[in-house]
Amino acid sequence: MADMNRLDNLDAWLSWQMQLHPKAIALGLERVAAVWARLGPASLPFPLVTVGGTNGKGSCVAMAEAICRAAGYRTGVYSSPHLLRYNERVRIDGEDVSDALLCEAFERIDRARGEMALTYFEFGTLAALDIFVRSAPDIVILEVGLGGRLDAVNLWDADVSVVTSIGLDHMAWLGDSLDEIAYEKAGIFRPGRPAVIGQRDAPARLRAEAQLRGSLPMQLGREIDWSLGDGGGWIWSAPSGERLALPEPAMRGPFQYDNASAAIAALRALQECLPISVNAIRAGLQRARLPGRFQVFPGSLTWILDVAHNGEAAQALAANLRAFACRGRLRAVLAVLEDKSPESIVGPLLPFVGDWYLAQSRDPRAMPVEVLSKRLEGALPAPAAVLLSDLDAALDAAEAASEPGDALLVVGSFTTVGAALRRLDPGRGDRG
């Protein structure tokens, strides 16, 4: 058990949690189930939406949250990872929770766990749910951390489950094929409850697993759909014949229509207990923001930040770059985690990027820059790549090489984008 006199601040709690379990990632529900049985209620006192997927889940969560808040509901949201401050992971009514609230929750979990060794993510997930139960929001939205079936958030039965997309990522834990990954993601679906699939060409196994579990599939291109409007905007449609004329989402990219469609479908499935007007949906779509997803900082040098860390996300980023007007040269700073495929990230971006700066972030799981360079030998022309072991040095070098009208893309992971955010938006603070 933690020394309560020593753990008197959030930084101390987080540092201690990182060392509590021998593995950084240890999938399974047994530990969180045992602790929650001593800590929280068997059934949650609010409607619950769980959102998983390879890409798009953060955007889907942000849109659902914004729509609910526009409708006047008090929301609880748990997401991961964070960019700058751990507090970003737990939000109540759109605001990050305080250090004090997190520390109080951590103390309760530490007492309830006894000698049970929890991972960093499990500790945080239990803390978020403990805070939500005590704060009594009108709706809670949980973002899956990794996979679905064995992820800690899957301990609780969602009223609606969403899988935004399936792609090749986290293969060391989820499997080497799309079918295997679909099976793991489908683990959040529940019998007799809606299972929203936000991908037209999702692997067939995802829908098949929803049906095997007795869930009610609502898949994009089948039960739900969207189309562009004739006079601007877009139309969301459902089998009931409902058609909603909506404005473009504030978040950039054609793929955001898919994420918005999934968010709307999830909330429409809760219409009886959580009625939401069309005007609230419109307002929420226009208010939703998500830092680090094609986040643009304009100026004489334009900064573009994107956490894309797999091939599918890089393709979505490329679509945004195609529509982005850059007057000068585009440079990119890339740093990735050791379990990622840098080749799949770089490939879609090659037509847009003139110079590459390869680096290593401070994340304990960061890929060493020498390994990153070796992996990309065949993908990048040698003169186009600069190697710097320190990420801040790489950002400095890329910025110094730029001229007015140029743009600088920072990409590859949350920690990579976080380093750029610290210099562009220093008032937001920083905490592991």
From TrEMBL:
Keyword ATP-binding: yes
Gene3D superfamilies: Mur ligase, C-terminal domain, Mur-like, catalytic domain
Residue ranges of every copy of the Mur ligase C-terminal domain listed in the record: 292-414
Domain Mur ligase central, chain residue ranges per copy: 51-213
SUPFAM superfamilies referenced in this protein's UniProt entry, alphabetically: MurD-like peptide ligases, catalytic domain (SSF53623), MurD-like peptide ligases, peptide-binding domain (SSF53244)
Top-level class of the enzyme under EC nomenclature: ligase
Keyword Metal-binding: yes
Cofactor(s) the record lists: Mg(2+)
Enzyme Commission number: 6.3.2.12, 6.3.2.17
Pfam family, one: Mur_ligase_C
Entry keyword set: ATP-binding, Folate biosynthesis, Ligase, Magnesium, Metal-binding, Nucleotide-binding
Pathway linked to the protein: Cofactor biosynthesis; tetrahydrofolate biosynthesis; 7,8-dihydrofolate from 2-amino-4-hydroxy-6-hydroxymethyl-7,8-dihydropteridine diphosphate and 4-aminobenzoate: step 2/2; Cofactor biosynthesis; tetrahydrofolylpolyglutamate biosynthesis
Gene Ontology terms: biological process: folic acid biosynthetic process; tetrahydrofolate biosynthetic process
GO CC terms, sorted: cytoplasm
Reaction catalyzed: 10-formyltetrahydrofolyl-(gamma-L-Glu)(n) + L-glutamate + ATP = 10-formyltetrahydrofolyl-(gamma-L-Glu)(n+1) + ADP + phosphate + H(+); (6R)-5,10-methylenetetrahydrofolyl-(gamma-L-Glu)(n) + L-glutamate + ATP = (6R)-5,10-methylenetetrahydrofolyl-(gamma-L-Glu)(n+1) + ADP + phosphate + H(+); (6S)-5,6,7,8-tetrahydrofolyl-(gamma-L-Glu)(n) + L-glutamate + ATP = (6S)-5,6,7,8-tetrahydrofolyl-(gamma-L-Glu)(n+1) + ADP + phosphate + H(+); 7,8-dihydropteroate + L-glutamate + ATP = 7,8-dihydrofolate + ADP + phosphate + H(+)
MF terms in GO: ATP binding; dihydrofolate synthase activity; metal ion binding; tetrahydrofolylpolyglutamate synthase activity
InterPro entries from the UniProt entry: Folylpolyglutamate_synth, Mur-like_cat_sf, Mur_ligase_C, Mur_ligase_C_dom_sf, Mur_ligase_cen
Function: Functions in two distinct reactions of the de novo folate biosynthetic pathway. Catalyzes the addition of a glutamate residue to dihydropteroate (7,8-dihydropteroate or H2Pte) to form dihydrofolate (7,8-dihydrofolate monoglutamate or H2Pte-Glu). Also catalyzes successive additions of L-glutamate to tetrahydrofolate or 10-formyltetrahydrofolate or 5,10-methylenetetrahydrofolate, leading to folylpolyglutamate derivatives.
Subunit structure: Monomer.
Family, per entry: Belongs to the folylpolyglutamate synthase family.
Protein name: Dihydrofolate synthase/folylpolyglutamate synthase
The species this protein was found in: Thiocapsa roseopersicina
